[in-house]
Amino acid sequence: MYTTTNESGVLNNYATDPQISYAEYPSPAQQSRYALQGAIATLFVSFLILTAIAVS
Q: How confident is the chain (56 residues) per 10-residue block, as mean pLDDT?
């Protein structure tokens, strides 16, 4: 949205503020899923590191 004043010709092109939405705390089911994903990611990274050590 552009607005100008006729007196000084100043252009007002500031961004409009978006609506704020707050995050919700994860449910217990989501928390357990995040813990499982973290454990799988830890095992995967450990496997990659041990494979790199074994190959070198």
A: 59 77 95 98 98 96
12 φ, ψ to 5°?
-105, 100
Two tokens at 47? 């496997």
Q: Per-domain residue ranges for the chain?
A: 28-56
CA distances from 15 to 1, 2, 3 (A): 8, 10, 12
Q: How far apart are the first and last CA of the chain?
A: 60
Write down the pTM of the prediction. Answer: 0.58
